[in-house]
User: Which sequence fits this backbone?
C-alpha cells in the first residue's frame, strides 16, 4: 500500500512529462514542438504588424503595441530546454524539424542572431504604438533578424 502510494505520488509529480512522452515518438519531440510553438508566436504577432504596415489591416496603436510587446516577450523566452543535442533535422527519429545541425556546431553564432532579434524587437515594442510610420520603420530590423537566422540555421522547407 505504501509502495503503491509512493509510485502514484511519483507518477503524479511526473504526470506532465509522462503524458508528453506517451504522445510523442522521439525523445526530443516535446522540445521540438515547444520551440516551434514559440516561433509560431513570433509569426502570429509579426503577421498582425506586417498586415498593418502593408495597409492590409487598419493601423491600431493599441493592437500594434500589444503585438510588438508579445513578440518582444517571446523573443526573450528562456530556451535552454528547447534545443537538446540530437534534436536537429539530420538526426533520425525526431519529429519534423528544420533546425540545422549548424545550431549545435556554431552556438555563439546562433546566440548572436538571437540577440539581434531581441535588440530589434525591443525597438519595435517601443515604437509600434507611436503611429504607422514609426511601426514601419521599426519593422525592418526585426524582419532582417528573422531572416538572418533562418538563412544560416533553418533548413529549406521540404
Ligand atoms: C536565432 C535564430 C532564429 C531567429 C532569430 C528566428 N528564427 Fe524562426 N526559426 C528558427 C529555426 C531554427 C526554426 C526551425 C525550428 C524547428 O523546426 O525545430 C525556425 C522556425 C520558424 C517558424 C516555423 C515554426 C514551425 O511551426 O515549424 C516560424 C513561423 C518562424 N521561425 C518565424 C520566425 C519569425 C517571424 C522570426 C522573427 C520575428 C524568427 N522566426 C526568428 C530560427 C530562428
Assistant:
Amino acid at each position: 500500500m505504501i509502495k503503491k502510494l509512493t509510485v502514484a505520488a511519483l507518477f503524479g509529480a511526473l504526470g506532465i512529462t509522462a503524458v508528453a512522452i506517451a504522445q510523442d515518438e522521439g525523445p526530443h519531440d516535446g522540445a521540438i514542438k515547444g520551440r516551434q510553438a514559440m516561433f509560431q508566436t513570433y509569426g502570429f504577432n509579426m503577421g498582425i504588424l506586417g498586415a498593418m504596415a502593408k495597409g492590409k489591416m487598419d493601423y491600431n496603436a493599441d493592437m500594434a503595441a500589444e503585438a510588438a510587446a508579445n513578440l518582444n516577450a517571446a523573443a526573450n523566452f528562456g530556451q535552454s530546454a528547447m534545443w537538446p543535442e540530437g534534436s536537429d533535422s539530420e538526426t533520425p527519429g525526431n519529429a519534423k524539424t528544420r533546425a540545422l545541425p549548424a545550431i549545435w556546431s556554431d552556438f555563439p553564432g546562433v546566440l548572436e542572431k538571437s540577440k539581434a532579434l531581441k535588440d530589434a524587437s525591443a525597438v519595435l515594442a517601443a515604437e509600434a504604438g507611436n503611429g504607422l510610420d514609426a511601426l514601419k520603420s521599426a519593422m525592418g530590423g526585426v524582419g532582417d533578424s528573422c531572416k538572418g537566422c533562418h538563412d544560416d540555421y533553418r533548413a529549406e522547407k521540404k
Notes: The chain has a mean pLDDT of 90. Helices lie at 2-13, 15-23, 29-53, 61-75, 102-105, 107-127, 132-153. The chain has one domain: 28-153.
